[in-house]
Amino acid sequence: MLWITGLSPAGRKSDLVSCRLWAEPQTPDVYMNGDFVIGGEFPFHYYMRPEEKTYTRQPLQPQCSGSMNFRQLRFARAMEFTIHEINNRTDLLPGITLGYQIHDTCAEVAIAVKVAFQFANGMEPFFSDTDSCSKSAAAAVPALVGESSSTRSISMTRMLGLFGIPQVSPYATCACLSDKRQYPAFLRTIPSDHHQAAALAKIVKHFGWTWIGAVRSDTDYGNYGMASFLKAAQEEGICVEYSESYYRTHPRSKLERVANVIRRSTARVIVAFVHEEELKLLLEELTRQPPPPLQWIGTEAWIMDPSFLRFNMCAGAIGFGIPRSVIPGLREFLLDLSPAQALKSPLLTEFWESSFSCSLTGSSEGARECDGSEDIRALQNPYTETSQLRITNLVYKATYAIAHAIHVLLTVCKLCVALQILDQLKRVNFTTKNGYQVSFDSSGDPVAVYELINWQFLHSIQLINWKIGIDNRVKLRSLLVWRILNLRQISVCSESCPPGTRKAVQKGKPVCCYDCIPCAEGEISNKTDSLNCMRCPHEFWSNNQQDSCLPKLVEFLSWDDSLSITLTVFSVAATFVGGCVAAVFYKHRASPIVRANNSELSFLLLFSLTLCFLCSLTFIGRPSDWSCMLRHTAFGITFVLCISCVLGKTIVVLMAFRATVPGSNVMKWFGPPQQRLSVFGFTLIQVLICVIWLTSSPPFPIKNFKQYKDKIILECALGSTVGFWAVLGYIGFLAFLCFILAFLARKLPDNFNEAKFITFSMLIFCAVWVTFIPAYVSSPGKFTVAVEIFAILASSFGLFTCIFAPKCYIIMFQPEQNTKKHLMGKGPSKSL
């Protein structure tokens, strides 16, 4: 136990009470003396043998146990190699010898901190049995390389920072260590997890995996790294179904719970921010009851270790690793190891005995003695594997960084090394012997460069690598060729919403779980996974698939419409019949039946009816400014002309019978000139109404968007509603007046009493236009115009048939009745 501060009996923090270390100093596993000794801490073992209970003031030194980590041994030996290489150089630290002391931390925070204290106080035993602190004359290390764990590095650098001793880690990636307010003495040659987490989120997004699971080591590395990833994933729109943590010392029940969560999950992609040890335990547990095929996304902590390919479920794993490198001479240095050399270090002795299953010291019971026939070059283990040097190169760079900082400071003053090495380390900028740039930013981090690693089963197990760079905005550069990766796993909570639909988040679930709602009428979505539907522009409408806007169908009564053709045929036929009747009347213009009721008015009536038939054609075709003004005014004037003629004929009938009374001179007041004047006067009033209408607010073409959602109705707006109803009202007034007068004259004695036929024609006329109003209002689109044309033709046909058909019948089929004597007969009418 290490005491630095204590508490007074009152519970208040007091001054320094004791600085006694209740343990012996940790003996270095590998060491070499020098002018400057660089410290090194590596976890060669992952377990620590429990200490025996003792009440002595100096308990036994803790011992590491478990199998040796050969990769960590290679890292430590790479540090040795680098220092030897530096000592052999004449351009770097000439005349100065670097030494090293390398310790095993047993992957335990307590041991790592203890060794760090030892480095800060000096490399020799420095605590006495007295109650006061006494430091030996041995100098503290100027800097140290290590540790590989973020958790242990956090504990170490908190303490080392108090003494200004820099720690350069080749493998601690926690983004928290970039905070220089808390960790001012920490630097590293491996990029921060902040960059890796953002890159992992982008790669997950690239492959369309929006529904993922996440597991992490319950350490600073796993917790901080996963927090960075989850933040980046949220920004990319990725949903996480679960996020589970585990540490190798946790109860097995927790490991089983994490495995069951993965098995029950619907997410088929797992992002694993875990250490090698935790992942091995997890994969072994999952192998007992394999889940459905999974796509693993890995970090540099395990994705670079091909030993995981023995688990078939890891095939196809993808992740970011440290770029491969080559260190000339390192392999020869690692293999230049004999039994005699191995005996000089307990660490190398354990390596030799473990690798060859023999005993160098003869202390291992049941094991054969090493006889010298062992060939280290025939070994195939992580220690001798130098084809993919990744972290090893970071150890190489870290050691060189310390050497360069010492070199610069020695050119100033030798005594400045211990005081200013931290500041100088932050400013180093050089290229290593194997061609790698070394520098640190203001946070003590290097430039972030990764390799994308994909595990594939080809003809043999292979790692496919692409080197990529990550700039400050964390963009994957074009060196990465995505389509080479054979990744077909699909992991989504909900299938993508196709065009024509929008996403609606399911209540109580993450945003990646949604329903696809079809867009409403008139709205579209033209891309996959639209959040909202867009309304089509005013003159466009959505298609049946709701994925594009099409121009609305423009509707009007066109000339090629079947309804238009039918109405046109009726209009032209009526005009032709009117012409034929006019020809008959003209041929028999001297006959009594033609002359009996002012033949001039009859011809004028025929002419006006012909105009009525023809004016219906102005309602057909695409509305324009001229056609809108023409159709209503032509209709109003021709109908008034027509009814004025009928009204004149009705008055003539009444005046004619009044004139038969003895002494009456009525006819001289309503002779042909007065009849012409009355027709002209009645028509002129309608002309004036139309002129006022057209000059104040004339009809104009409009696009009616209200009648139909998916159609545009081209029609004529009335302009002035008052003007339109004034025209119709005047026509109605004349028709009603004509009907009253004709009704009064219907029983006047005459074999050919025209008044009763005029009465019938006015009844038809009024009936047509009374029913026209509701039909006109309720008819949709082009049928509104068709109803108006039908009303014009029907009322015109009614007038034409009732007034001219009886006369034509007599002229053509009963000529014997076409005499003045017959027409002036006093008996009951025998006419049609």
UniProtKB/TrEMBL annotation:
CDD domains: 7tmC_V2R_pheromone. It is a multi-pass membrane protein. The chain crosses the membrane at residues 563-586, 601-621, 633-657, 677-696, 724-745, 757-777, 789-812. Its main location: membrane. It is found in: Cell membrane. Keywords: Cell membrane, G-protein coupled receptor, Glycoprotein, Membrane, Receptor, Signal, Transducer, Transmembrane, Transmembrane helix. One of its GO terms (molecular function) is G protein-coupled receptor activity. GO terms for cellular component: plasma membrane. Residues 563-827 form the G-protein coupled receptors family 3 profile domain. PANTHER family: C-FAMILY ODORANT RECEPTOR OLFCD2-RELATED (PTHR24061:SF528), CALCIUM-SENSING RECEPTOR-RELATED (PTHR24061). Belongs to the G-protein coupled receptor 3 family. This is G-protein coupled receptors family 3 profile domain-containing protein. It comes from Pygocentrus nattereri (Red-bellied piranha).
